[in-house]
Amino acid sequence: MLRHQTFFNTTPMMAPFIMALNLSMERENHDTKGKFDVTSITAIKSALMGPFAGLGDSVQQGALRIIATGIAIGFCQKGMWLGPLLFLLIYNIPNFLIRWYGAKLGYTVGQDFVQKAMANGIFKTITNAVSVLGLMMIGAMTAQYVTFTSTFVTKAAGQTFKLQAVLDQILPGLLPLVLVLGCFAYLRKKNRPVRVLVAILVLAFVLTFLGLTGGKA
């Protein structure tokens, strides 16, 4: 009990694997009647909590949550109750399965498997792949659900000048992309999301007052 009072912090999704791995090592220590190196039990827990936190965050927060949100938003916009239900199912069922089978796998494979996997770079490859998937989903959601267009129209040299048409020639969806990247950069500095919401609201009022958005094109 004293041995397992040390600091331990990782993604909840991946915690059962590490704890089950520790349990198998404790059992091996018991079966060998104290001949097992007990310092490795704490060491493997401390060594795995960081890499597994990165892997779990990539899967749970970077992929599952984004995919579930992307699917659920379409139903929610139509006022269908399937939206929140699908979000809960898509997000939680894989989460539960990874916890369950992760615990079983951790108890059976032993620490040798983990050491080989870390040495071969398997965890790093999975983390990078899931991160790319999450970024792709964020990009798709930005293009589909973030609406931010300019309605500014004026006359210049006898011709009609439409700001949004010019922006579309530069890059379609430029304004939604800039808005999302701006919010991301602000939140990445550990700022509060509420401030982002207030800033977007103020920005909407200011741009509408200036006639850049919100009018009739």
Task: Write up what this structure looks like.
With 217 residues, this protein is mainly alpha-helical. It has eight helices and two strands. A two-stranded antiparallel ribbon has the order 1-2. Helix 1 packs antiparallel against helix 2 and helix 2 packs antiparallel against helix 3. The longest helix has 39 residues. The model has no long low-confidence stretch (mean pLDDT 82).
Shape: elongated
Let me know the largest β-sheet.
2 strands, antiparallel
**Strand order in the largest sheet:** 1-2
Strand content: under 5%
Helix fraction by DSSP (H/I, runs of at least 4): over 70%
Q: What gyration radius follows from the Cα positions, in whole Å? A: 25 Å
Q: What order do the helices and strands follow?
A: HHHHHEEHHH
Low-confidence stretches: none
**How many DSSP helices?**
8
Supply the key terms.
two-stranded antiparallel sheet, 2 strands, 217 residues, mainly alpha, elongated, 73% helix
